[in-house]
């Protein structure tokens, strides 16, 4: 399709109207998805927001703050991972429920195959919506877990670097490492 034809078919006002409609309709999906995810990552999210606030303010995390990060994130991840498993099971249940109701409506509806399909699709709108919401919630929680794991790994690397820096300074000043014997 040429650019001129595309511009003729789609004007800026139509795009804005379509975007507003999509945003309006997706608000409910977003709300349900966040309600499903939030119990499993509330503490993790609050903790990461605290760290983000400190870092965005130009604050360099102290060794104690890094230690806290390295200790707390795996604990929060434990609960998030449990939630991920539960969301997966609930999502499977939502999908099975959707199929069960769809098949029941399809079989009970008289008329053509096309009429049966339309009736079954319309009759399972809520179940389709919940199936999609559980799928989105699962993906969102999984992504949050992966990002938190990366943050934890980064904090561990920073701690290791700081320990090496301290050891290097001590060596330069003639201090021995713990456990090192006299020559």
Q: Helix share of residues?
A: over 70%
Shape: elongated
Largest sheet: none
By DSSP (H or I, 4+ residues per run), the number of helices equals: 5
Q: How large, in whole angstroms, is the Cα Rg?
A: 27 Å
Q: Return the string of H and E elements.
A: HHHHH
Mean pLDDT: 91
Query: N-to-C terminal Cα separation, in Å?
Result: 80 Å
Oligomerization category of the chains in this entry: single chain
Number of domains: 1
Low-confidence stretches: none
Strand content: under 5%
Number of strands: 0
Overall structural class, as computed from helix and strand content, comes to mainly alpha
Q: Can you tell me about this structure?
A:
The chain has helices at residues 3-9, 12-56, 63-108, 113-123, 125-172. It has 183 residues and is mostly helical. The mean pLDDT is 91.
């Amino acid at each position: 399709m040429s650019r001129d034809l595309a511009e003729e078919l789609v004007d800026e006002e139509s795009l804005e109207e379509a975007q507003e409609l999509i945003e309006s309709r997706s608000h409910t999906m977003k709300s349900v998805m966040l309600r499903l995810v939030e119990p499993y990552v509330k503490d993790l999210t609050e903790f990461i927001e605290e760290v983000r606030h400190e870092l965005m303010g130009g604050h360099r995390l102290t060794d104690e703050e890094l230690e806290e990060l390295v200790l707390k994130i795996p604990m929060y991840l434990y609960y998030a991972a449990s939630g991920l498993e539960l969301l997966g099971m609930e999502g499977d249940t939502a999908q099975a429920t959707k199929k069960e109701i769809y098949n029941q409506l399809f079989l009970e509806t008289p008329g053509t195959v096309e009429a049966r399909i339309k009736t079954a699709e319309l009759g399972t709108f809520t179940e389709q919506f919940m199936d999609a919401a559980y799928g989105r919630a699962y993906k969102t929680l999984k992504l949050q877990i992966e990002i938190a794991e990366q943050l934890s790994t980064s904090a561990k690397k920073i701690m290791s670097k700081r320990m090496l820096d301290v050891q290097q300074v001590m060596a330069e000043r003639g201090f021995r490492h713990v456990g090192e014997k006299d020559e």
